[in-house]
Please model this.
Amino acid sequence: NTQRTPLIAGNWKMNLDHLQAIAFVQKLAWNLKDAKHDFAAVEVAVFPPFTDLRSVQTLVSADKLPVVFGAQDVSAHDSGAFTGEISGAFLAQLECTYVLIGHSERRTLHGENDEEVAAKVTAAVKHGLVPIICVGETAADLELHGPSAVPVAQLRTALSGIDSAADIVVAYEPVWAIGSGQAATPEQAEQVAAQLRLVLSETLGQDVADKTRILYGGSVKGVNIAGYMREPNVDGALVGGASLDIDEFSSIVRFQK
Ligand code: PEP
Model:
């Protein structure tokens, strides 16, 4: 779809400290520039830990690197007595473009529910960040309800506090495919992505549905990215493990359909 620029997003999770982050982002950008990567044609984003963001911002702005970045989570609150939380205002000030919201590890390890995800999405949009709304079914959900029911319900709730003016990205990440090496097939990813696009059209309108990027995530690597990118409703990937290896991540960014 020509309206939607593909996005390859690297979720570092709790890996790489602020010094390692600087070296990594610099090397990644050089590597891709050497390979003549067209950053306008395929957008590249990294999601370092919070403590790396200031260093990454400084590097990216000083060296004018064509890589964008975001945080892995955001508070639903603006400021105040919320020990340990990070406001969207702080992230916007650090020139974060994106923020991951509702990643399956936040949902399972930190008990985030759909309402909290919705509140965070609303907060992100309010502060001018683009939320990457993560949805996906567990293996048990898949067996009980089929592939789309849970991600569709998660997305509906996640969108409840925003309107059609909001800039958003959706990431379909089946929980059973994350970090398991057991990636969904391109057909499976497409089937759910198409349902998620219908939700976008029903809730925020056809224009939003047409322009919003839907990513696939779950054991994406250099060898399997092309299959997803050939699907009409998949507009990029959210990459975990493989985003920590510069060569591997570069090969995902430089996919050939
Ligand atoms: C993720 O954490 O968002 C993810 C998709 O991880 P992996 O690529 O390692 O499966």
Observations:
- The mean pLDDT is 97.
- The first strand starts at residue 7 and ends at 11.
- The beta strands are 7-11, 43-47, 68-71, 98-101, 130-135, 169-172, 213-217, 236-239.
- The chain has eleven helices and eight strands.
